[in-house]
Amino acid sequence: MSTTTQKLSSLPLPPGSLGLPIIGESISFLKERNFAAKRQQKYGSIFKTHIFGRPTVVMVGAEANQFLFKNENKYVTSTWPKTTRVLLGPASLSVQIGDFHTSRRKLLFQAFQPRALASYLPTMERITAEYLQQWESSGTLTWYPELRNYTFDIASSLIVGIENGSKTALGKLFEEWGAGLFSLFIPLPGTTFSKALRSRQGLLKLIGQITLKRQQQGNLGEDALGILLQARDEDGNRLSLDELKDQILVLLFAGHETLTSAIASFCLLTAQHPEVLEKIRAEQRQLSVSAPLTMEKLKQMTYLEQVLKEVMRLIPPVGGGFREVIEPFEFNGYFIPKGWIVQYQIIQTHKDREIYQDSESFSPERFAAETTQEKQKAFAYIPFGGGLRECLGKEFARLEMRIFASMLVTNYEWELLPEQNLEMVSIPTPHPRDGLKVKFRRL
Question: How many whole angstroms from its chain centre is CA 170?
């Protein structure tokens, strides 16, 4: 043992509890929305637990985020719970590390460059208009499942060229697969994980069939799949079919799951704050917003952008991220051993009262240019993660959210129906327990 390691190991481990043998505190972690908040209150901004079969340190706050993001591949490396890793697949960008991750990320980014995003805008606008009309004719609806279909239809159309994807075999398999991503690793028949694993095989088969059909026809297409079929890395190599299938699966997930949560939170919070909704509408009127939307027009919606930022601060679609310790280190006087897992916290960082005054309130003005609070401290605002692994589909998500919000508030109004449970369920991503029941009509 080196002198440095001896010195480190003489420091105390963070406070906390490792819970029950084997399962630790995994069930509490999956079931309790305030899991981290309760323990942070008890132990402080760094504490130990035991989740998904591994001893884990939870580190909360901008300084912790900065340390972890800046020391990627030095002290820590990205990891996921075993179920997530297995279901995402061995070739998926999410499970790659080091230089290979960097080169693959550059290659996949070709599907999210500004030119590609601009080409996606008309499809996003068309599908949004179709869904808004459907909801208008429904009158009353449970919105969250509908929003899941909406974002999946856009993702399946723009990523693999399948229209109305939520109503196809792809949509059914995807729902079952997604349900298992953050489940317990129990590979027994009938379990959530086992069903998700079977669905993964079905999804890979479908994606493979779509890809081979395009290659045979010689028409690779204009969507993300078409872009990636033509993409080459720095050495001139293309993605293999197996790798392409895993990457497409990740893009479908990234372009659907977290985005649904963010959009549903926008609908909920603006319904609860009519004064904010009226200010968004006033800006839309002032800009004379009408179809077709353009990138230039969307960029002018500065108040809407503040609202969307505040939505993702208050209810971030992802609660945190995982890193594995590859070299022991010290943080705030505590020893973090090699082989342990570290979880950084997005939701608790966004509630830091030292950075966000009145942090529990919904206040878009906190992101006005003259008072922008997220710039006051590095990594204090991280709805899309940060560092080398910031969400690849960030701009895709921001584009779709702005299009949806603009078209929704300009032409429609909605009110929350009484006697429903609006408590947020956090797995797989935050959403109202009763699915957000609303009365929906044209303005």
Answer: 20
pLDDT above 90 (res 429) = no
Least confident of 51-55, 118-122, 184-188: 184-188
Rounded Cα gap, residues 228 and 160, in angstroms: 11
26-35 pLDDT, tens digit per residue, is: 888 888 878 9
* Residue 4: predicted pLDDT: 66
Tokens of 439: 């009365």
The CATH number that domain 3-70+319-349 falls under is 3.30.43.20
How large is the C-alpha radius of gyration of the chain?
Answer: 22
Number of H helices, E strands in the chain: 18, 12
Tell me which H or E stretch contains 37. Answer: helix 35-43
What are 349's two structure tokens? 């960082």
For residue 162, is pLDDT > 90?
yes
At 1 the pLDDT is 47
Contacts 24+ apart (CB under 8 A), 287-291: 289/406, 289/410, 291/125, 291/129, 291/407
Three-state secondary-structure class, residue 325: strand
- CATH number for the region 104-318+383-442 comes to 1.10.630.10
Distance CA 401, CA 60 (A): 28
Q: Where in the chain is the domain with CATH 1.10.630.10?
A: 104-318+383-442
How far apart (Å, rounded) are the C-alpha atoms in residues 47 and 60? 9
Could you read off the pLDDT of 367-376 as tens digits, one per residue?
987 665 555 6
Q: How far apart are the first and last CA of the chain?
A: 70
- Average pLDDT (407-414) is 97
Q: Boundaries of CATH 3.30.43.20 in the chain?
A: 3-70+319-349
